[in-house]
Each structure stands twice: as C-alpha cells, then as structure tokens.
Write a structure and sequence with these properties.
Blueprint (H helix, E strand, L loop, with lengths): L1 E12 L2 E13 L4 E5 L6 H9 L6 E6 L2 E2 L5 H7 L1 E4 L11 H9 L7 H7 L4 H4 L10 H13 L5 E5 L7 H17 L3 E5 L3 H4 L4 E6 L2 E6 L1 H13 L4 H7 L8
Parallel strand pairs: 3-8, 3-9, 6-7, 7-8
Antiparallel strand pairs: 1-2, 1-4, 4-5, 9-10
This protein binds adenosine-5'-diphosphate (ADP) and magnesium ion.
C-alpha cells in the first residue's frame, strides 16, 4: 500500500517560492486501478513526481508498505518498485528499443520484449532494433516508455496521460494491457487521464485541482457528470443571456 499523508511540495520558481501541492492525502491499495483526473495545471503530474521522488516533499510523509520513503532518492524508489511513465518522456539517445526494455526488465521479470511491444501496439520487427532518437514521434516514444514500465515488476506503476499521441487501435490494446496488468499482478496502478475509456477502468477516481485532492469518487459519478456536461454547452449561462442557445446553424 502507498500512503501520502499531508504531502506538500513547494518549488523555487523564478519569482520566488511556488506551492504546487498542498495537503495531499491518499491511501492506494495493491491490485487496484486509480485514475487521477482534473483540470490542466491542477497538480496531477506533480503528485506522480512526488511519489516517484522527482519532487521532494516539503511537508508530509510518503509510506510504501509502511516504510517511510519521503526523502529517498529516485533510484532507491525505483528499486523498491515505484515506476513512472512520464507525460513527456525523455529520449534515451543512443539506446535501441530492445536495450531499453532489457535494462528496464533487469533480471527480475521474465517477459519478452516482443510481447511488451505488442501490448502497446508496436510491432517488434519494426522497433526492437531501432535507435530511440528524434525520428520517433511523440506517440511512438510514449509507447516505448510505457512498455519499459510494463517490463518491470512494480509495486506502484504511474502512467501519465498514456493516451496522448496514440491511435485508436493502440489505445484499445493499451486499455486491455492495463486490465491484464491489474488481473495478473498486485501492482497499484495509477493512471493520469481524461479519457472516458480509462475512467471506466477505475476502482476509484481521484480528482486533483488547485494542487490538492478535491474529491475521491467513483467512475459512475464522474461519468454521469460528464453526460450532464455534454447536454449543456460549456457557456450555457452566458449563451442564455446573449440568446445564443438553440441557434439553428442550418
Ligand atoms: N518544475 C516546476 N517549477 C515550477 N512550477 C511548476 C513546475 N512543475 C509544475 N509546476 C506548476 O505546478 C502546477 C501543477 O502542474 P502539473 O502537476 O504539471 O499539473 P497537471 O499535470 O495537473 O496538468 C502548474 O501550475 C505548473 O505550472
Ligand atoms: Mg500533467
């Protein structure tokens, strides 16, 4: 189990200190899927980075299976089984796809690179020997990055907007991959996403806004809110006032 207790993160920005996370309280169980969602800039990636150790908490505690990891470095957290697939993955220049996957898998996880690529909708024949460089599109890079996380035996796997840049077919494969991971391992899966199909995988939905947890809720509740939202235009009140609603464009 991963616990965040009153976690806060304040960074040194150009114009002084910026508080990007405050009073984050979360209890994340093994073998569950959590989908983190909420407005852009709300702090979702920052929560993932605090869990991974990329951002150092300035207050509060992070416990992994009861062990205090609040100030442990990234490498140690990685060894303890925390993995994060970046929203915008760095490019590992000079490394071939199969080398990255072998490095990620280490000696602990027996899985084939071919299967891993299939899980993210990439064909092994085309990719295993390709060097990861600027010729990779954003979506390809993202999928290789996700495969490198799938390669690992993790306690906590964080996926930051995995859908970005991914075509529909690969997206379908990816949702099945998350389901399989959930079925076959005890990993706590945290997916940052705005996608309805991903929301439908959630055991719980964590809403993040203004640097904190605004609500922990069910997928049913979020999905019904989305339906309501779709029925009204986003500026319904303004449009009513201006008489723009139900304008016939025909
Ligand atoms: N390295 C950083 N330095 C200063 N501010 C940052 C940094 N990273 C993120 N922020 C700020 O923290 C807030 C939350 O960002 P982020 O966690 O990326 O949001 P989300 O992932 O929900 O879109 C934003 O206002 C963003 O500008
Ligand atoms: Mg983000």
């Amino acid at each position: 189990m991963l616990e965040l207790i009153n976690v806060g993160v304040t960074l040194d920005g150009e114009d002084g200190k910026v508080e990007i996370l405050k009073n984050i309280n979360l209890k994340l169980d093994n073998k569950k899927i959590y989908v983190m969602t909420g407005p852009n800039g709300g702090g979702k990636s920052s929560v993932a980075k605090a869990i991974m150790g990329i951002f150092n908490p300035t207050s509060g505690k992070i416990l992994l299976d009861g062990v205090d990891i609040t100030h442990k470095p990234i490498t140690e957290r990685a060894q303890l089984g925390v993995g994060y697939a970046f929203q915008q993955p760095p490019r590992f220049k000079g490394l071939k796809v199969h080398e990255l996957l072998e490095l990620s898998a280490g000696k602990t996880h027996a899985c084939s690179a071919c299967d891993l690529l299939y899980d993210v909708g990439l064909c092994a024949q085309d990719y295993l020997n390709r060097e990861i460089n600027t010729t990779f599109s954003g979506g390809e890079l993202k999928r290789v990055e996700i495969a490198s996380i799938l390669a690992r035996d993790l306690k906590v796997a964080l996926f930051d907007e995995p859908e970005a840049g991914i075509d529909l077919w690969s997206f379908q494969r990816l949702t099945e991959t998350f389901e399989n991971m959930n079925r076959n391992t005890d990993t706590t899966i945290v997916i940052i996403s705005h996608q309805e199909r991903i929301l439908r995988l959630a055991d719980e939905v964590i809403m993040i806004a203004d640097g904190t947890v605004s609500e922990i809720t069910s997928q049913e509740k979020v999905l019904s809110t989305i339906e309501q939202f779709d029925k009204n235009c986003r500026c319904a009140a303004d449009c009513d006032r201006e008489g723009y609603r139900n304008v016939n464009f025909a």
